[in-house]
């Protein structure tokens, strides 16, 4: 089982067709780094 210590919700919509690399780049741009055991939830338009 994967433990999740925190869940972050993106307040700006993101095009889900962009892929995982773009999602990771957005996480790094906003939070400075992708942290272990933290989940980020994105919403589409």
From TrEMBL:
Protein name: Mobile element protein
Source domain of life: Bacteria
Lineage: Bacteria, Pseudomonadati, Pseudomonadota, Betaproteobacteria, Burkholderiales
Biological source species: Caldimonas brevitalea
